[in-house]
Please model this.
Amino acid sequence: MVFVDKEGTRIHASVGEQLIKQFEGKLTEGEAKVVQLFKLYDVIGDYRTTAHPYKIGFFQTNFVGTADEFPSEVPEKYFADARYVNLIF
Model:
């Protein structure tokens, strides 16, 4: 998944398979959330969802709550302009 902050900075985030049930229902597309107590990792490899050099990793101790000072629905200006390229394999 990709998180975006109030300045529009995007960062990749992932929940390990063993934690999916814990965070299922807490992270919903388009909702503004506060996420605390996570770990940052260097992005390694060719597959990148953002240009950010780090990604967020979730743990059992993560807190996910409602973001009171952010719009209840994410404004369109926070979404990246997606450009699609035809790939030939």
Q: What stands out?
A: Residues 20-23 form the longest helix (4 residues). Residues 84-89 have pLDDT under 50 and may be disordered. The beta strands are 2-4, 10-14, 33-36, 39-42, 54-57, 63-66.
